[in-house]
Amino acid sequence: MKQTLIISLLFPFAALAADADYTLVIKDHRFTPTELTVPAGKKIKLLIENQDVTPEEFESHSLNREKIIAGKGKVTIYLGPLEAGSYPFIGEFNEATAKGVIHAK
Predict the structure, then answer these.
(1) In contact, 44 and 22? CB cutoff 8 Å
(2) How far is Cα 27 from Cα 14, in angstroms, rounded to an integer?
(3) pLDDT of residue 16
(4) Where in the chain does DSSP place strands (E)?
(5) Can you list the pairs that 82-87 forms with residues at least 24 positions away whose Cβ atoms lie under 8 Å?
(6) Which tops the pLDDT comparison, 102 or 6?
(7) Does the structure show a pLDDT above 80 at 8?
(8) Quick one: CATH architecture of 16-104?
(9) Domain segments of the chain as ranges
(10) Which residues contact 1 (CB under 8 A, 6 or more apart)?
(11) Is residue 50 pLDDT above 80, yes or no?
(12) What mean pLDDT value characterizes the chain?
C-alpha cells in the first residue's frame, strides 16, 4: 500500500494510463467503426479523429463524456474501467448520422 502511494505521488499521471488504445474516425458526419468492442474491467484510451472540416461533439450520457473535436482535429478520451454492457454515443452536431456504441465484454 505504501509503495503504491509513493508511486502515485511520483507519477501522478500514471492513473491515466490505459490498458488498451482504440480509435474512432469521424468522416462524412459518421463514426467509424459504429460499434467498438472493448474489454470490460479495463481502462481504455479512445482517440477520436475528425476527418471532416466541420467540428463534431462526441457525447455519451452513459459514459458521462462530451468532447468537441475540431474539424481536422483529434482528441483523446480516457474511459473505464467499464462494467460489461453497451454504451451508446452520438455526434451531437449530426445526430441523424453520427451514432455508435461501445460494447464492454
Answers:
(1) yes
(2) 32
(3) 55
(4) 20-27, 30-32, 35-38, 44-50, 56-60, 65-69, 74-79, 85-91, 99-104
(5) 82/38, 82/40, 82/41, 82/42, 82/44, 83/40, 83/41, 84/40, 84/41, 85/40, 87/60, 87/62, 87/63
(6) 102
(7) no
(8) Sandwich (2.60)
(9) 16-104
(10) none
(11) yes
(12) 90
Centroid of chain to Cα 50: 13
Q: Tens digit of pLDDT for each residue in 10-47?
A: 555 545 567 899 999 999 999 999 999 999 999 999 99
Query: What is the rounded distance in angstroms from the CA atom of residue 83 to the CA atom of residue 95?
Result: 26
| CB 17, CB 78: distance < 8 Å | no
pLDDT at 19: 86
List Cβ neighbours of 34 (8 Å cut-off, separation of 6 or more). Answer: 99, 100, 101
Question: Contact 40/105 with Cβ under 8 angstroms?
Answer: yes
